[in-house]
Amino acid sequence: MRYKIVVSGAAQVGHCCREIEKISKEVGREIALQRCILITGATTGVPYFAALGCKDAHGFSVGFSPATSEAAHLKTYKLPLDPFDVMIYTGADYVGRNVIMTKSADAVIIVCGRIGTLHEFATAFEIQKPIGVLEGTGGTADKIRKIATGPYRGIKRII
C-alpha cells in the first residue's frame, strides 16, 4: 500500500522562514523516496515547491484543485499544472477542496501556512488523521502548538 500524504502550507510564502522553498522541496522529495503519494491543494508556494521536490525524485503527485476545470484552474484561480501527475478538479472552491483533499489522505504535514492551512489542520484533527507539523517554518506551523494545547488540549505531542 502506498500512503497518501498531504503537504499543507502557504501559497504565498512571504511570512515563512527564509529556507521555505528548500524545505518544501525536501519534504516532497522525501515523500517520493518513501514511495508515498504526495497530495497538495494544487496551488503556489509550499504545495508547489513540495510537488517540484516530489517530481525531482520521480515520485507521484496529485493536485486537488478548487476549480471545476483545467481552464478555470489556470484562468480563474491562476494556479500551476506542471508538477502534477494527476489533477482532480473538485469544483468546491478552496474550503470544499480542503475538506475533500484532507479526507482523501492518510496523513497531513503542515509547513508554514495561513488560514487555509489552519483549516486543513483542523479538518485532519477532527477526523483523526496523523499530523506532522514542521515548527520553525513560520505562519500556522508555528502557532499550532499553542492552539492545540490551549483550553482544548487535544494534542498530546507535535511531531
What does this molecule look like?
It contains six helices and six strands; from the N terminus they run βαβαβαβαβαβα. By secondary structure, the protein is α/β, with parallel strands linked by helices. The protein starts with a strand and ends in an 11-residue tail after the last helix.
Low-pLDDT residue intervals, each spanning 5 or more residues: none
> Which descriptor suits the 3D outline?
globular
Major beta sheet summary: 6 strands, parallel
Q: Kindly state the percentage of residues in helix.
A: 25-40%
What is the count of DSSP helices, taking H or I runs of 4+ residues?
6
Mean pLDDT across the residues is 94
Q: H/E series, N to C?
A: EHEHEHEHEHEH
- Please report which band the strand proportion falls in: under 5%, 5-15%, 15-25%, 25-35%, 35-45% or over 45%: 15-25%
> Between the first and last Cα atoms, what is the distance in angstroms?
23 Å
SS class: alpha/beta
Number of strands: 6
Question: How are the elements arranged and paired?
Answer:
Blueprint: E1 4-9, H1 20-33, E2 37-40, H2 46-56, E3 60-65, H3 70-75, E4 86-89, H4 93-104, E5 107-111, H5 115-126, E6 131-134, H6 144-148
Parallel strand pairs: 1-2, 1-5, 2-3, 3-4, 5-6
Helix pairs in contact: 1-2, 4-5
